[in-house]
């Protein structure tokens, strides 16, 4: 049972790390992974952590260099074919750095969980809590930032449709998984300690049998006989 709890917490951390890693490596690094998709006119534009790709189709398309923060006005001109200035969104886009931070914290929590014993799980649980908070903040930024862009495209851009894409749901899933991993990893400390105590008790019982306790069908049955002292020995 204890081993199952420990493995469950480690598996949750591994799953969260993989989800956050894929979301972090979204467009322009991986074109098929993005937080927001804008489709229309036979082309598709994707927004990711480090930039965006515009007008992807069978003939190609273009992506921005990987960097922190979006120039929203430039993105609007390239993707939406219209002028849209929003300095608040441009500043908010720098908060997308929370994705690699959450990914790194979850990886550290995973390593500590794998290498830890007993009280090391407390530290792993603390790292998992930090990863959860970073992932939660990143998820809020995703829904706020890309929600504003999505509403702007759907309401004011003709022939274009914007929708949340796979990376958004990956971050959401990773946040939920990290929340539960905090408790599973913390509980691993208690179960590991209990399992160690049970092992020690079994070893102690086995040692008592080997030193004179129950030995089967031999002449000594029952408990170990007390050792005779020199003054109680019989004199001949």
UniProtKB/TrEMBL annotation:
Cited InterPro entries: pH-response_reg_palI/RIM9, SUR7/Rim9-like_fungi
Spans traversing the lipid bilayer: 96-114, 121-149, 169-187
Alphabetic keyword roster: Membrane, Transmembrane, Transmembrane helix
GO CC, alphabetical: cell division site; growing cell tip; plasma membrane
Membrane topology of this protein: Multi-pass membrane protein
Keyword Transmembrane in record: yes
Compartments in which it is found: Membrane
Keyword Membrane included in the entry's annotation: yes
Major location category of this protein: membrane
Domain of life, per lineage: Eukaryota
Protein's name in the database: SUR7/PalI family-domain-containing protein
Species, as recorded: Papiliotrema laurentii
């Amino acid at each position: 049972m204890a081993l199952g709890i420990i493995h469950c917490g480690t598996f949750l951390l591994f799953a969260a790390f993989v989800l956050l890693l894929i979301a972090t490596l979204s467009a322009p690094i991986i074109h098929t992974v993005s937080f927001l998709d804008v489709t229309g006119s036979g082309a598709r534009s994707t927004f990711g952590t480090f930039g965006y790709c515009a007008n992807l189709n069978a003939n190609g398309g273009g992506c921005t260099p990987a960097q922190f923060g979006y120039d929203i006005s430039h993105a609007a001109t390239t993707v939406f074919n219209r002028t849209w200035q929003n300095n608040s969104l441009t500043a908010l886009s720098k908060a997308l750095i929370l994705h690699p931070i959450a990914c790194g914290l979850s990886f550290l929590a995973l390593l500590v969980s794998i290498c830890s014993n007993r009280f090391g799980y407390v530290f792993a649980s603390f790292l998992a809590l930090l990863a959860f908070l970073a992932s939660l903040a990143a998820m809020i930024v995703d829904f706020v930032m890309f929600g504003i862009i999505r509403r702007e495209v759907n309401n004011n851009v003709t022939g274009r449709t914007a929708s949340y894409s796979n990376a958004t749901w990956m971050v959401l899933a990773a946040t939920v998984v990290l929340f539960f991993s905090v408790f599973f990893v913390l509980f691993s400390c208690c179960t590991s300690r209990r399992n160690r105590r049970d092992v020690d008790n079994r070893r102690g019982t086995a040692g008592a049998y080997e030193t004179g306790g129950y030995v089967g069908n031999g002449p000594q049955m029952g408990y170990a006989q007390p050792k005779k002292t020199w003054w109680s020995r019989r004199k001949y």
